[in-house]
């Protein structure tokens, strides 16, 4: 039975994943357009802050060559040092190259105007990541005639920056005053990435009590909200991820003007309108969230007043409800992470909701998986990786 359902799941996933590319899908909410001098993430003052001001003096991993004809290097030699980079940066750059080819339908190619610097004439602060093989300066060139001195418009470079930050492992993207895009990526040995809530998060149960998220089980009914802003209780149908003991260092703590505070992983989706979501790492002061007032028993609109990044908390927990939403610490959030569209993620889990109802109807025990990650979302994640979406 288990093998049968896994096969059905793979067939189900193939269709929605194709809708998830970096093109002009309606499920992709847009970032603020980058102007010269702007960068992602917007909340940081400098590139060094992305990596906790802890850029190691040596390479964090072995440097490898980028051998491809889909990317133009300013130094055209295949043995050039400019082609050296870390494995994670090579993966990010190749992925961005494929995105460029798809988005601009083969008319443009990536041009690397500066990559790895083995021995710069004069070492400066901005060159540190270039010297470690973790940064690139990028432009776009015409595919058919790359030698032609054709300068693409600023809005095209801005869009490239959005695609790079949203869809690849580049954690810092800046539209430089010189008209090019600067990108950099983390060490492979950087922090464990969580896409959940910490163990001390609380949810509201249908019996009127509150429970720690680590104690929630399939079949429990927890408080959430529908698209009309009406509160309701919804059944938990899966524990997508559970780990009670690991210390996670990359949570984001978001506080609102009515003193509600949620701690959530960087790549978890949170609602900034009744239907629109953002990654928690992209939430800004002044954004609108929806919260629950336990005194009035009503939902309220709240303004984000404070954001703290890289918060350390214990545990990772991700319960899934039938609606794909829940209220955690009185803040309305999506159950989903990893992929930027709540709507597409919810569609992918349609099959599991049917399986859950089937098993429940025949009084089969749902059980709690012994693995940290439930096999269903794990197959979804691996499928996205296979299709180069993650």
TrEMBL record:
GO terms for biological process: cell fate specification; cell-cell signaling; intein-mediated protein splicing; protein autoprocessing; regulation of gene expression; smoothened signaling pathway; system development. Gene3D superfamilies: 3.30.1380.10, Hedgehog/Intein (Hint) domain. It is a lipid-anchor. One of its GO terms (cellular component) is plasma membrane. It comes from the Eukaryota. Keywords: Autocatalytic cleavage, Calcium, Cell membrane, Developmental protein, Hydrolase, Lipoprotein, Membrane, Metal-binding, Palmitate, Protease, Signal, Transferase. Belongs to the hedgehog family. Residues 1-20 form the signal peptide. This is Hint domain-containing protein. It catalyses: glycyl-L-cysteinyl-[protein] + cholesterol + H(+) = [protein]-C-terminal glycyl cholesterol ester + N-terminal L-cysteinyl-[protein]. The keyword Hydrolase applies. Pfam families: HH_signal, Hint. Residues 194-293 form the Hint domain. The keyword Transferase applies. SUPFAM superfamilies: Hedgehog/DD-peptidase (SSF55166), Hedgehog/intein (Hint) domain (SSF51294). It is found in: Cell membrane. GO terms for molecular function: calcium ion binding; patched binding; peptidase activity; transferase activity.
């Amino acid at each position: 039975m288990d093998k049968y359902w896994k096969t059905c799941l793979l067939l189900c996933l193939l269709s929605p994943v194709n809708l998830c590319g970096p093109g002009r899908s309606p499920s992709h909410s847009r970032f603020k357009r980058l102007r010269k001098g702007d960068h992602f993430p917007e909340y940081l003052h400098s590139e060094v802050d992305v990596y906790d001001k802890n850029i190691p003096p040596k390479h964090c991993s072995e440097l490898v060559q980028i051998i491809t004809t889909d990317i133009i290097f300013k130094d055209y030699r295949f043995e050039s040092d400019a082609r050296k980079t870390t494995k994670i940066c090579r993966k990010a750059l190749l992925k961005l190259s494929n995105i460029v080819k798809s988005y601009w339908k083969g008319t443009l190619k990536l041009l690397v105007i500066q990559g790895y610097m083995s021995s710069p004439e004069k070492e400066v602060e901005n060159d540190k990541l270039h010297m470690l093989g973790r940064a690139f300066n990028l432009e776009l060139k015409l595919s058919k005639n790359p030698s032609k001195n054709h300068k693409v418009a600023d809005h095209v470079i801005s869009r490239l920056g959005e695609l790079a930050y949203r869809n690849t492992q580049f954690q810092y993207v800046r539209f430089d005053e010189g008209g090019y895009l600067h990108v950099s990526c983390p060490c492979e040995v950087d922090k464990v990435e969580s896409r959940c809530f910490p163990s001390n998060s609380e949810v509201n149960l249908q019996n009127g009590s509150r429970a720690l998220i680590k104690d929630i089980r399939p079949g429990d009914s927890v408080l959430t909200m529908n698209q009309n802003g009406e509160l309701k209780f919804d059944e938990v149908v899966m524990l997508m991820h559970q780990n009670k003991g690991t210390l996670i260092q990359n949570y984001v703590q978001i506080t609102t003007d009515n003193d509600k505070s949620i701690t959530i992983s960087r790549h978890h989706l949170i609602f900034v309108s009744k239907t629109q979501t953002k990654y928690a790492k992209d939430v800004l002061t002044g954004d609108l969230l929806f919260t629950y007032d336990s005194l009035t028993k009503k939902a309220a609109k709240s303004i984000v007043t404070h954001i703290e990044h890289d918060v350390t908390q214990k545990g990772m927990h991700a319960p899934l409800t039938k609606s794909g939403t829940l209220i955690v610490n009185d803040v309305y959030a999506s159950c989903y992470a990893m992929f930027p569209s709540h709507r597409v993620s919810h569609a992918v889990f349609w099959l599991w909701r049917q399986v859950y109802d089937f098993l429940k109807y025949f009084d089969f025990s749902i059980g709690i998986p012994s693995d940290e990650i439930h096999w269903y979302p794990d197959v979804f994640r691996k499928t996205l990786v296979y299709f180069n979406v993650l």
